[in-house]
């Protein structure tokens, strides 16, 4: 179990957000290493702490937006509005409905077959493909966007692997999907490539994540997880990282990391 005493007397949302993020990562590692029924418990723990971190970061954003521009950051830190987590997740959903975000999702569970050394991207038989669970996850993911009334800018971009294409097709319909060959490069981050090549790929990813979608919509990408500590980090099956682009050369802000259930459970 997590030692809650590490939390100490932290009061500023930025400190709490970092703390909760670390606890979510801890639970995620326990979950990924679990081979028994505790896995579900770890998943709930992971999501709980991700939501707490999200709530704290949202407090920071709303506080900054509500303060006069001539106030210093130190002044702003002492005037954080006391929103609870439910309000934060509800406000996140409201923001997502207004558009301006990028959803980067990993494909659904893919445990059928293996990626062969000489995989042919045009031949699904040489790749790891969606399981029945993965197909259900994909359908649920698409329904989540429709039920939550979150606008998506079509076409949805996918990696050229069959598992990513099928995920997108099941979620949004084949006519609303476009294969983007670049997202194959994220898969290559797990290979034995040079540091320079890794940095080149990450720079290209950053460039995409810095680009704002059309007004009133959200960009959606379905591809692969990243290695731990690289890019957007590890992502569970059908998990989503939501980022807010800050413009070319200005980076982006990660506003939420959600499991499939965490996404579909966003509150009104």
Describe this structure in words.
The chain folds into two domains: 1-83, no CATH class; 98-268, Phosphoglycerate mutase-like (Rossmann fold, 3-Layer(aba) Sandwich), CATH 3.40.50. The chain is globular, with a radius of gyration of 19 Å. The two termini are 32 Å apart. By secondary structure, it is an alpha/beta fold. Strand 5 (240-245) and strand 6 (252-258) form a beta hairpin. The chain has a six-stranded mixed sheet with strand order 3-2-4-1-5-6. It is built from nine helices and six strands.
Number of helices: 9
Helix content: 40-55%
Taking the sheet with the most strands, its summary is: 6 strands, mixed
Mean pLDDT: 81
Helix-strand pattern: HHHHEHEHEHHEEEH
Looking across the biggest beta sheet, what order are the strands in? Answer: 3-2-4-1-5-6
Could you name the CATH topology of the largest domain?
Answer: Rossmann fold
């Amino acid at each position: 179990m997590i030692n809650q005493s590490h939390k100490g007397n932290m009061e500023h949302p930025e400190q709490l957000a970092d703390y909760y993020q670390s606890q979510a990562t801890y639970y995620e590692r326990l979950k990924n290493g679990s081979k028994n029924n505790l896995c579900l418990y770890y998943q709930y723990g992971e999501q709980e702490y991700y939501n707490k971190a999200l709530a704290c970061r949202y407090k920071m954003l709303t506080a900054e937006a509500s303060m006069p521009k001539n106030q210093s950051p130190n002044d702003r830190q002492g005037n954080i509005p006391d929103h609870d987590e439910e309000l934060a997740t509800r406000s996140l959903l409201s923001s997502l409905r207004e558009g301006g975000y990028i959803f980067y999702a990993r494909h659904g569970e893919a445990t059928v077959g293996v990626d062969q050394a000489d995989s042919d991207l045009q031949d699904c038989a040489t790749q790891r493909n969606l399981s029945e669970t993965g197909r259900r996850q994909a359908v649920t993911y698409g329904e989540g966007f429709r039920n939550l009334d979150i606008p998506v800018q079509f076409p949805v971009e996918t990696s050229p692997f069959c598992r990513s294409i099928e995920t997108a097709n099941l979620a949004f319909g084949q006519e609303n999907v476009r294969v983007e060959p670049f997202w194959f490069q994220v898969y290559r981050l797990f290979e034995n490539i040079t540091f320079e090549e890794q940095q080149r790929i990450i720079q290209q990813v950053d460039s995409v994540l810095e680009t704002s979608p059309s007004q009133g919509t959200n960009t959606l990408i379905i591809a692969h997880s990243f290695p731990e500590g690289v890019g957007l980090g590890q992502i569970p099956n059908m998990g989503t990282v939501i980022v807010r682009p800050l413009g070319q050369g200005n980076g982006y802000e990660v506003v939420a990391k959600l499991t499939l259930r965490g996404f579909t459970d966003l509150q009104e």
